[in-house]
């Protein structure tokens, strides 16, 4: 579970390649998460958070790759904070652990998730 550009998709693909069933749930304030998300065992969910500065930089780079101006709301500080606040609200209701992906490679995040799933204490939640 995470906002756009927290590496949900490549992380999901990486874990699926390792034979794990994965669900990728984007957090967008205008879109209500599937109601089933609130009924899933919180031990089977992991939130992916990122600091606003890193997220803004990543989003601006993404817009540039798409040939768009970095003034789009997608990379706007206020919009980013709104999305992160919504993420925190949803995570608070679910009660699942959260991993800060701000400075992590996909493999590092995957190892933390697998540690949590496999009952190892190396997850920082």
Which key features would you list for this structure?
5% strand, two-stranded parallel ribbon, single chain, mainly alpha, globular, 125 residues, 2 strands, 43% helix
Detailed description of the structure:
With 125 residues, this protein is mainly α. Helix content is 43%, strand content 5%. The chain has 4 helices and 2 strands, in the order H-E-H-H-E-H. It has helices spanning 8-17, 52-65, 77-94, 106-117; strands spanning 47-49, 98-100. Strands 1-2 form a two-stranded parallel ribbon. Helix 1 packs across helix 4 and helix 2 crosses helix 3 (77-94). The relative contact order is 0.21. The model has no long low-confidence stretch (mean pLDDT 91).
Q: Structural class of the helices, strands and pairings?
A: mainly alpha
Give the overall form: globular
Strand line-up across the major sheet: 1-2
What would you report as the Rg, rounded to the nearest angstrom? Answer: 15 Å
Oligomeric organization of the protein chains: single chain
Poorly predicted tracts of residues: none
H-E string: HEHHEH
Beta-strand portion reads under 5%
End-to-end span in angstroms? 14 Å
Largest sheet: 2 strands, parallel
Q: How many beta-strand elements? A: 2
Number of helices: 4
């Amino acid at each position: 579970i995470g906002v756009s550009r927290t590496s949900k998709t490549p992380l999901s693909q990486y874990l699926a390649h390792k034979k794990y069933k994965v669900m990728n749930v984007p957090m967008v304030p205008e879109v209500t998460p599937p109601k089933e998300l609130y009924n899933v065992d919180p031990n089977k969910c992991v939130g992916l958070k990122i600091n606003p500065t890193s997220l803004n930089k990543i989003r601006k780079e993404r817009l540039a790759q798409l040939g768009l101006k970095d003034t789009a709301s997608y990379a706007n500080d206020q919009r980013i904070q709104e999305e992160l606040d919504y993420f925190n609200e949803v995570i608070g209701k679910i009660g699942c652990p959260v991993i800060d992906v701000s400075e992590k490679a996909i493999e590092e995040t995957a190892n933390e998730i697998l540690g949590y799933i496999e009952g190892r204490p190396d997850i920082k939640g």
